[in-house]
Design brief:
223 residues, 11 strands, single chain
Length: 223
C-alpha cells in the first residue's frame, strides 16, 4: 500500500471527518503533501506561523510544548491515524506544539493555504478543522484531569490505554520518555510497567512497549 493509499484509509476512519465523505478526503490528499522524515527530524515547531493539519501516516512523533522556565516538556506521542493541527484563518495563533519524529515517519501535511484552496469548493472543510481542534482540546483536558485525579499507577494505565487506542498498540517509547510525559520518576514507571507485564497487559522491549490488553489497562485506570 502506498503512503497516499494508507493516508486515505486513515482519513476514512477519522472521527473529525465523519459525515464529510470521500470527496473531502480526496481534496485533503490532492492539496496536501506526503512528507518522509528521518528519526529526530522536526515535523513542526512551536511558534511556527505556518499552521494547518498534520496526519501521522507511518511512524510516530513526540509532542512537545514550552513550560515555565523556558523548558520543553514531552506531553504525548502520536502514531498512525492521529491528526494534529490548528488554523490562523479564524483568529488562531502560531503553532502550539513541536512534533519530533521518534522513528522514520511519513506524514500528510495540509497547510493553511491548502485548506483555503479546498474551502473554495468545499467550505465545510473549516467544520472538519473545528472538529479536530475540539478533539485536541478534549484530549488536553483529559490529560489535565488524569494528572489531578489519578494516582501514578492508574495514570500510567490510562495514558497507555489512550495511546494504544488512538495510535496503535506498538509504542516506540522508552521508560524515561513515558516518565517525563506523566510527570513521574523513571523508577516509579518501571515498577508499574513490570507489574503490567507480569499481568499480561503489555510486553516491554528496548525503547518499545507492545500493549496487549487495552481493556485490562482501562480497568486499572478506572479502579
Amino acid at each position: 500500500m502506498s503512503p497516499r493509499e494508507r493516508a486515505a484509509e486513515l482519513l476514512t476512519r477519522a472521527v473529525w471527518l465523519q459525515g464529510h465523505g470521500p470527496p473531502m478526503i480526496e481534496a485533503l490528499l490532492t492539496h496536501g503533501r506526503i512528507v518522509h522524515l528521518p528519526t529526530g527530524a522536526w515535523a513542526q515547531s512551536e511558534g511556527d506561523e505556518q499552521t494547518g493539519i498534520t496526519l501521522v501516516v507511518e511512524g510516530a512523533v513526540q509532542m512537545m510544548c514550552a513550560a515555565p522556565g523556558g523548558r520543553e516538556v514531552l506531553f504525548g506521542q502520536a502514531g498512525p491515524g492521529v491528526a494534529l493541527g490548528q488554523t490562523l484563518r479564524f483568529g488562531g495563533g502560531p503553532r502550539l506544539v513541536t512534533l519530533i519524529c521518534v522513528e522514520p515517519s511519513v506524514l500528510l501535511v495540509v497547510p493553511d493555504h491548502a485548506l483555503t484552496r479546498i474551502a473554495a469548493d468545499r467550505p465545510e472543510v473549516w467544520q472538519a478543522v473545528a472538529a479536530l481542534v475540539y478533539l485536541q482540546l478534549r484530549g488536553a483536558l483529559m490529560i489535565a484531569a488524569e494528572a489531578v485525579a489519578l494516582p501514578p499507577r492508574q495514570r500510567l494505565a490510562a495514558r497507555l490505554d489512550i495511546m494504544a487506542r488512538t495510535g496503535g498498540r506498538s509504542l516506540r517509547m522508552n521508560q524515561q520518555a513515558l516518565a517525563e510525559m506523566l510527570g513521574l520518576s523513571r523508577k516509579t514507571v518501571n515498577f508499574y510497567l513490570a507489574g503490567f507485564q507480569r499481568g499480561g497487559l503489555l510486553t516491554l522491549g528496548y525503547g518499545h512497549i507492545e500493549v496487549r490488553d487495552t481493556a485490562g489497562l482501562r480497568r486499572i485506570a478506572e479502579s
